[in-house]
Each structure stands twice: as C-alpha cells, then as structure tokens.
Design a protein that fits this description.
mainly alpha; 3-stranded antiparallel β-sheet; 6 helices; elongated
C-alpha cells in the first residue's frame, strides 16, 4: 500500500506553510496525490516529494511560480530551464552590481562626513558636531555627485 502524508506533515517536513501547499494546488503546480472525499483532507505520496523539493529550490533562487509552473508543465524541458536560469543569473548579477554601487556610495558618504567633521573640529577648536541639516545636505550632494558620475559612465 502506498504511504500518504498529510498536508501538515509535508509542510513541516519542508518547512513551508500549509497555505503555500494549498496555493500550489490551486494554481495546478503541486497537487495532492489523494484528497479524501469525505473530509477534504489532502494527502501526498512519497514519490511526489522530489518534485516539491525541486519547486522549493527553484523558488529559493528567485524563480517566479509562474515560471516554475511552466517548467513543470513542460516536463522540465532543458531549453526552458536554461532560459529561466540565464534570466535569473542576469537578475542576480544586476543585484550584485547594485549592492556594490550602494557600498561605494556608503563609503563616499562616510568619507565626506568624516572630512566635514574633521574640518569643523579644526575650525572650531572643539568637537562641535554639525547640525542634521548640514549633514543631510552633504549626503545629498555626495549622492548627486555619484549619480552624475554613474550617468556619465553609462553614456560613454
């Protein structure tokens, strides 16, 4: 006899919500192997678990459910899988570039703020801190300089 796992058992096993499993069934992505006609309880078979694992791995790298469904519906066609993975790789590479730009921006703002604080300390002789308005203006100016530099680089 085939072993059936309750929806809650599967959810706990894969650390996902019952709601997610119901959504997957609703969109036709991952249907229960058996639904009790009297109680409406959903049960899954052990041989379905590798598919759920694959779905969750794809979701973890950022593949949209609609793309996962397209893959499942097409029997994990290698051409479709490669296309989706290339698009996702491009997305993550772009996110890395954005993060690098933000880190550079943070470093430049910190550097400008430190230089301004040092300048104010030399001028005033004490460790008077600049008011928030002046520091916010400095940050905006530094950010504007970075945006201008980036725009110029993109147009070259």
């Amino acid at each position: 006899m085939e072993m059936h796992l309750k929806i809650g058992e599967v959810a706990e096993m894969f650390d996902i919500s019952i709601r997610a499993l119901r959504l997957y069934a609703k969109i036709g992505l991952f249907n229960p192997g058996y639904t009790d006609g009297d109680t409406g309880y959903r049960y899954y078979t052990v041989d379905q678990l590798p598919l759920l694992n694959t779905i969750l791995v794809l979701k973890a790298v950022g593949v949209k459910l609609i793309d996962v469904k397209h893959l499942v519906d097409n029997g994990f066609d290698p051409d479709i899988l490669i296309d989706i993975m290339e698009r996702k790789k491009e997305y993550w590479e772009n996110q890395i570039e954005i993060a690098r730009f933000n880190i550079e921006n943070i470093d430049k703002i910190k550097s400008a703020a430190s230089a301004r604080l040092e300048q104010l300390t030399k001028e005033g002789g004490d460790k008077e801190k600049p008011d928030a308005y002046k520091m916010a203006r400095l940050i905006c100016l530094e950010n504007l300089k970075l945006e201008t530099t980036l725009s110029e680089a993109l147009w070259l």
